[in-house]
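Exam prep: given the inputs below (a chain plus 2-phosphoglycolic acid), describe the expected output before reading on.
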Amino acid sequence: MEIITVDNYQKMSEIGALIIKEQLKEKSNSVLGLATGSTPIGMYKELVRMHIEESLDFSSVVTFNLDEYVGISKQHPQSYHHFMFQNLFKHINIDYSKIYIPNGNNANLQLECERYEQKIIQIGGIDIQVLGIGANGHIGFNEPGSNFHDKTRVVQLSESTLRANSRFFEDIHLVPTLAISMGLKTILDNSKKIILLANGIEKEEAVYRMIEGNVCSNNPASLLKLHPNVIVILDSHAARKWNKNKVINRVEW
Ligand code: PGA
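Solution:
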């Protein structure tokens, strides 16, 4: 796990975007695993800027999103479909047929999950997976207590995630309680490289537990310590609690 700390959100976003840009320069048809939430918005903005000002080309890129709510339409302003188009896809030259986001409205959710998992494997895995982290340590919607062997599946959102995500809805009761999420195994087994972004004081505890805590299912992000190629990019707030002396700049688990 390599840990990069920077002063602020903007720098965190720029470094995340630079890593993706380097990847696309090396392999134009890269497969990107993408995340939603407040955290990656700045990185997506930077990628859009790179597309416009530096002609960064997305025409051959394939994307897989981590998760999607169950039971709200793709057009719903809080759906992750909507989020991705608003924040990234509609501003770049990506081929819409190469975008994969779980369909939380499939009448057969089980089949949807199986197909999603299969598609990731069939395409040869994910070159770079972008992750945020929940205040409770979740990655994707893999809440504390998730199993390390979990593949893409329907998940029940925890109380703390419902509360955190209610900021985007008029009322907490309108937040979907179910979602489809790539599982911990999906992420760990299929991602060649992972970048995890975290900013803000509300993430300092989760970041500290991820880096210094034991690898355990109650702390899903801790599992990333078992992956050989993870870059964590933190702003100064999210980085505040972990003890920098405890982790040498680059540590291989
Ligand atoms: P946030 O969510 O980026 O909105 O803080 C991150 C997450 O829940 O994974």
